[in-house]
């Protein structure tokens, strides 16, 4: 039975706001990484904090701003990449290494980057979430990160107003059974 005190609506709004904030943070972090910002350095962290209040994160604009700032600093904190570092993709929470590598490679050869499942309009929210989970699994991530990828995709679609963003335990178990992961 639903509470009439409005607590369920408030709880939903809080979760909705948290999902939107997480989505914005992930978009910002991905744009910063694509712009070449070393987000682990002190200067990179300050730059990220300075741009965090923006509504949109255009990586080309961020790249120009970062190059202006980083190039003007005598103690540039972004060391030149070593051969070993060039072969490793940066880590971005919630984004599979394969997706980041696809973005990096597409910049080099002029192709369009692979669209992450969460942004594919040809998939329902459940299908996009399942694809995000499969990418996580294929990347060797543990069960908790796979579940986080799945639920993050569902919540992101729900936050965007997608009416297909519905989850039930029964549907989850059915997907696992179909994949041969639940007997």
Can you walk through the features of this model?
The protein is globular, with a radius of gyration of 19 Å. It starts with 6 loop residues before the first helix and ends in a 5-residue tail after the last helix. Helices cover 60% and strands 0% of the residues. It has two domains: 7-88, no CATH class; 116-183, no CATH class. 21% of the residues are buried. It has 183 residues and is an all-alpha fold. α1 crosses α7 and α6 runs antiparallel to α7 (143-159).
Topology:
Layout: H1 7-34, H2 42-51, H3 59-72, H4 83-86, H5 97-109, H6 125-138, H7 143-159, H8 169-178
Helix pairs in contact: 1-7, 6-7
Query: What's the shape?
Result: globular
Please mark out the parts with pLDDT under 50 across 5 or more consecutive residues, or reply none: 72-80, 106-112
Largest sheet: none
Span from first to last CA? 32 Å
**Beta-strand residue fraction:** under 5%
Characteristics:
mainly alpha; 2 domains; globular
Structure, briefly:
The protein is mainly α and 183 residues long.
């Amino acid at each position: 039975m639903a509470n009439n005190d409005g607590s369920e609506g408030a709880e939903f709004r809080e979760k909705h706001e948290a999902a939107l904030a997480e989505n914005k943070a992930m978009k910002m972090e991905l744009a910063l990484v694509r712009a070449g910002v070393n987000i682990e350095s002190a200067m990179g962290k300050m730059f990220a904090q300075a741009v965090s209040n923006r509504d949109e994160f255009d990586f080309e604009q961020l790249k120009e701003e970062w190059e202006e700032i980083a190039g003007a600093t005598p103690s540039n904190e972004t060391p030149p990449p070593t051969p070993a570092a060039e072969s490793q993709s940066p880590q971005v929470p919630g984004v599979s290494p394969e997706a980041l590598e696809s973005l990096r490679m597409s910049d080099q050869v002029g192709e369009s980057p692979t669209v992450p499942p969460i942004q594919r309009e040809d998939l329902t929210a459940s299908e996009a979430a399942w694809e995000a989970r499969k990418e996580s699994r294929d990347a060797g991530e543990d069960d908790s990160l796979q579940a986080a990828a799945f639920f993050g995709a569902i919540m992101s679609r729900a936050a965007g107003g997608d009416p297909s963003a519905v989850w039930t335990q029964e549907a989850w178990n059915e997907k696992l059974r179909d994949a041969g992961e639940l007997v």
